Each structure stands twice: as C-alpha cells, then as structure tokens.
Amino acid sequence: MKNFILKIFIILLCSSHFIFCSETLGIVTKSKGKVEYQKFSEKKFTTKIYKGLGLHGDDRIRTGDNGFSIYRYLDDASSIKILKNSDIHIEGRISGEDIVKTVEVDNGILNFDIDEQSGELFTVVTPTSLATVKGTDFWLICNGPEGDKFFGVDGEVEIKNVESGKIVTLKEESVVVSTANGNIVFQNSNAQDLDEIQNLEEESGSYEDLDIDTEIDDSSIDENLDEQESSDSSDDATENIIRIQLEDSLGNSKEIIIKYK
Description:
Helices cover 17% and strands 45% of the residues. The protein contains three helices and 18 strands. Strand 15 (174-179) and strand 16 (184-188) form a beta hairpin. The longest helix has 19 residues, at 2-20. Residues 9-22 and 212-236 have low confidence and may be disordered.
C-alpha cells in the first residue's frame, strides 16, 4: 500500500518538477546497506544517500556487498533496482515534458522496470552491450568488461553487442548473453535461468521489506511530528512524511514535503 501511494505521489510530482528544478531527473526511494553516492559536481563519494534525494545527470551510485537502492524517474513510474556490488552512472536530459533516460552500468546486478516511453527510447550502456528499451521489465547481470547476461521478464529489449554490432531481441522468459569477444546469444529460459531470476527477485524483495532509510537526519524531521502522531493515534492513523530535495546545476534547491497516512 505504501509503495502504491508513493508511486501516485511521484506521478503527481511530474507536472511540477520542471518548475522547481529543471535538472533533477529522478529521486531515491530506498537505500539499505552500503550504498555510496557521488553528485555530478563532486569528486568524492558520500554515504549520505536517503529517500527523496534528487538525482541529476552524471550522478553515480555504487553499492557494496550488502548494498541495495532504488530510484524512480520523475516523468513516469520507471524504476531501477540496484543490487549488491553495482556501479552505475545516471545520464539523461529533459526534452519537453519527458526525460530522455540513459544508465551506464560499469558492473553489477540491476532490475529495470521501465514504463512505456512516449519519446526517445530508454538506453542501458555497459562495457559490452547497448540495450534500447521502449517499455519492459528485465534483469541485467553485468560482469564489467567480461560481458553481460540479460533476463527477460516482460516486454522486449533490443540488445546490441558493441564489439560485433550484432543485435538480438530479448523477450519474456528468454536470456541473452553478450560477451566481450563479440558473441551474442539468444536462448529460451531454462529451469536454471528461472531459478536465478527467482533468487534475484527474492533478494531484492527481502531488502524492500526492510525499513527504507539508511541515513536519517534528525534535524530535518518536522518538530511537530510527535504532536501530529499523537493527535492521529485516536483514529489509529500514522502520518508518514516524504521529503524530496531538488537541486539544479547552479546549486539552487527546493524541498517538497509530502505527508500521507
């Protein structure tokens, strides 16, 4: 229920984010374990990554052995799950009311749940492959320069091997393996592949069931929260607060506060 409410608020936010911050592409909705964030304007990583953090083009997210994070784009409900030992660069630009989305993956395990794109295709770039997406759900295991393995869950993804230029289409219940020597192979999912997908889903699900924030800044919590929770206790309702920090390339910031029960 909470995820559904959050999704609705993110969609509603789409119409206003261009007013507040033309450079913000998405927001972090979950972060657990060892997760590091590097802002486009900074040279160092920080562990200060939290729900509501605005993400810009050329930002970077890196996870450790127990790291997990999710972010969503502001123009639709497209979301990226980043599992352990991953390193990604968030790229993109705003075109009208749409965001042209690109993710550069150096290595790692990721789930892409991409809404139907009204404009240009969603692009995923690895050292070995180039994947273009109209709207779909798929998993990627990127082994850096050694190659990639794609698992199709729903929809279709066009995958190009960078070395050979060969292109294949990933479909539902199929697997595409793209290697550094130029080979790219399509095959239907077998029992082992399905078990691997299920394990990935279970691993990400176990993190999603945990509390959302890794970093909590007590000074940023509304001083009236205790009073609000107390007043709500009579009708068994607990008020939740989402704080979204938006910032443009000049450093101008805007905080949007969303309260829901």
